[in-house]
């Protein structure tokens, strides 16, 4: 704000009346005084709509810039940029154009600094959330791997003495099963149903060969035996029941763990999004323009800070809806971990179920042989040797010690802790403005009238904007084009939608294929976990389904972000993600 003054008594005959512009504090500068060509002390009165409204006495000296010189050097900048005393501010492009201690170069450097500091705060906030998600990931992943290890050890310790050579000669069949289960849980591209079917087929082949060592069984005959699996049902109902229980338990556990990975990856990528130039200008005006005006102690008005932050983080706030949906669904999935069909009970009971299946086949080996010989023909005779049935008979019935035992409450406590943390993180994206303003805005009695409003120390009058990009159309502090959303953030919104859809499928025991990807895994941000974590999963359409083409919905609009990007590549990625989502919804 500027005030206009008129010479009241001027001894100069050339210009009896000269209009001069002064700073709000009433200080004249030598340059302004010389320009007026007046050579006397004078009394001045402010010219307003109603005439004379006030009188100033005398002419003061220009304000020293010593305070901002100290502040500026503390930020790591060279003092050569800073004037010794205030200068006219017509050169300023961001701060109010009154008398100032900031040059154009200073304004530009401080603006860049304000953006860099803001981006640092966003990354710091993101790291805190990533640390929480990383802790949950490591806890559940570690527990799941521990369950698989305990289950495999129980099988080895029981089968070796009970089955003798029958186990030792076929141990890879069992170890391969657990290896595939571990790979599946670690987000590798493993089809769980195929892995279980392959295990039973290989087990049938090995047991049939061991039980009929008096015959010569070639590969063609073995293939014929494998094809009779559904008809023979040599293991009773064990394969079907085990597949149902294992699939439901591991699909839920794996999806939950992948949800933690995806959540952390979204936080990492969004935290690395560069703030816009318009946001940089708004941050400069709020943060460092008071210093340029000689009001270093002035703190932003609460509503003023809110509007700046809501404008700067408008795209981030648009994550809110899908972020909440994902967190809600993850809580539901976590609730399925405990109980008689929980992941710990299912995995630790694997040795018992497999032992029962083997006993079923050995008890009915004659009926199995009869059906096989009828379907595949009688194999050629060979040497007489000990059969698998005799091996099992020597050791007696296979009895596996119950390793499930009473519940220790560990999993239950993990689920409770995870649910609490997931609920706490739901408002993260829309709460960022208030969190970032909490330690910088003016507080205390009368703060609303003495705070910095972007121009001066005075009350901030505009209303506070809502959350999200669409709500910023009338934001008075940040100029933003609501038709140009940030494409990186839009891609992350799509990832949240897809992950939520997968988790909902997991509630029904349905699975979706994943492939490993190291895309952006080595980015500059801090990831969710350390080097021992698997790459972030990416959803793909199962290859068993034929490719399908969908028309773009009429209301779908492709937009581009304000940041410089390779637009064709980004649009291609978005369209492929959209097609995938449509396919999953069918």
Give an overview in words.
This protein is mainly alpha-helical and 586 residues long. 54% of the residues lie in helices and 5% in strands. The chain has 23 helices and 8 strands. Strand 3 (43-48) and strand 4 form a beta hairpin. Helix 3 packs antiparallel against helix 5 (171-185), helix 3 packs antiparallel against helix 19 (410-424) and helix 9 packs antiparallel against helix 22 (487-507). The chain starts with a strand and ends with a helix.
What's the layout of helices and strands?
Blueprint: E1 3-7, E2 19-22, H1 30-36, E3 43-48, E4 51-57, H2 66-74, H3 104-163, H4 165-168, H5 171-185, H6 192-211, E5 215-216, H7 219-227, H8 229-232, H9 238-271, H10 277-287, H11 289-292, H12 302-312, H13 314-317, H14 320-334, H15 343-348, H16 350-363, H17 365-376, E6 380-381, H18 388-395, H19 410-424, H20 428-437, H21 447-450, H22 487-507, E7 514-516, E8 537-539, H23 567-585
Antiparallel strand pairs: 1-2, 1-3, 3-4, 5-6, 7-8
Helix pairs in contact: 3-5, 3-9, 3-10, 3-16, 3-19, 5-6, 9-14, 9-22, 10-12, 12-20, 14-19, 14-22, 22-23
Share in β-strands: 5-15%
In whole angstroms, how far apart are the ends? Answer: 61 Å
Number of strands: 8
Instruction: Classify the secondary structure makeup into a structural class.
Output: mainly alpha
Please work out how many helical segments DSSP would assign.
23
Query: What is the gyration radius calculated from CA atoms?
Result: 37 Å
Which geometry do the CA atoms define?
rod-shaped
What is the helix fraction of residues, given as a range?
Answer: 40-55%
Strand order of the largest sheet: 2-1-3-4
């Amino acid at each position: 704000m500027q005030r206009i003054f008129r010479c009241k008594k001027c001894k100069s005959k050339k210009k009896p009346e000269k209009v001069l512009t002064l700073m709000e504090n009433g200080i004249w500068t030598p340059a302004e005084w010389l320009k007026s060509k007046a050579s006397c002390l004078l009394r001045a009165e402010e010219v307003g709509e109603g005439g004379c409204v006030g009188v100033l006495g005398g002419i003061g000296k220009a304000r020293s810039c010593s305070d901002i010189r100290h502040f500026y050097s503390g930020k790591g900048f060279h003092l050569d940029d800073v004037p010794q005393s205030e200068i006219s501010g017509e050169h300023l492009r961001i701060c109010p154009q009154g008398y100032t201690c900031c040059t154009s170069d200073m304004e530009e450097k401080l603006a860049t600094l304000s953006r860099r500091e803001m981006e640092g705060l966003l990354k710091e906030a993101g790291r805190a959330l990533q640390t929480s998600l990383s802790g949950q990931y490591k806890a559940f992943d570690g527990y799941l791997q521990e369950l698989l290890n305990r289950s495999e050890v129980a099988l080895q310790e029981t089968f070796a003495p009970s089955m003798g050579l029958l186990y030792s000669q076929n141990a890879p069949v069992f170890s391969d099963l657990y290896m595939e289960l571990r790979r599946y849980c670690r987000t590798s591209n493993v089809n769980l149903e195929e892995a279980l079917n392959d295990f039973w087929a290989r087990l049938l082949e090995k047991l049939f060969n061991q039980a009929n060592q008096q015959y010569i069984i070639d590969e063609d005959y073995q293939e014929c035996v494998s094809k009779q699996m559904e008809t023979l049902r040599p293991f009773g109902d064990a394969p079907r029941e085990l597949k149902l229980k294992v699939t439901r338990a591991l699909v839920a556990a794996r999806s939950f763990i992948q949800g933690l990975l995806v959540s952390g990856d979204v936080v990492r990528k969004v935290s690395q999004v560069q703030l816009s130039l318009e946001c940089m200008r708004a941050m400069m005006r709020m943060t460092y323009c008071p210093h340029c005006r000689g009001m270093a102690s002035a703190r932003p008005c609460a509503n003023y800070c809110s509007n700046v932050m809501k404008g700067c983080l408008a795209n981030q706030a648009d994550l809110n809806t899908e972020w909440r949906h994902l967190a809600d669904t993850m809580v539901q999935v976590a609730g399925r971990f405990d109980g008689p069909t929980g992941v710990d009970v299912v995995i630790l009971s694997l040795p018992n179920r497999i032992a029962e299946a083997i006993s079923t086949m050995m008890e009915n080996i004659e009926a199995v042989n009869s059906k096989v010989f009828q379907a595949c023909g009688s194999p050629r005779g060979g040497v007489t040797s000990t059969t698998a049935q005799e091996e099992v008979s020597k050791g007696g019935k296979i009895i596996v010690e119950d390793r499930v035992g009473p519940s220790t409450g560990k999993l239950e406590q993990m689920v409770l802790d995870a649910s609490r943390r997931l609920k706490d993180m739901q408002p993260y994206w829309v709460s960022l403005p208030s969190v970032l303003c909490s330690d910088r805005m003016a507080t205390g009695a009368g703060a609303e009238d003495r705070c910095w409003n972007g121009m001066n120390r005075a009350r901030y009058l505009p209303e506070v904007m809502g959350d999200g990009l669409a709500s910023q159309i009338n934001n008075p502090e940040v100029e933003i084009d609501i038709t140009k959303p940030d494409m990186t953030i839009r891609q992350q919104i799509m990832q949240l939608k897809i992950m939520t859809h997968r988790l909902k499928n997991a509630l029904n025991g349905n699975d979706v294929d994943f492939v490993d990807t190291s895309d952006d895994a080595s980015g500059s941000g801090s990831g969710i976990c350390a080097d021992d974590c698997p790459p972030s999963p990416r959803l793909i359409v199962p290859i068993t389904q034929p490719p399908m083409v969908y028309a773009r919905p009429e209301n779908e609009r492709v937009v581009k972000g304000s940041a410089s990007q390779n637009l064709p590549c980004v649009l291609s990625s978005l369209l492929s993600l959209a097609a995938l989502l449509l396919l999953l919804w069918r």
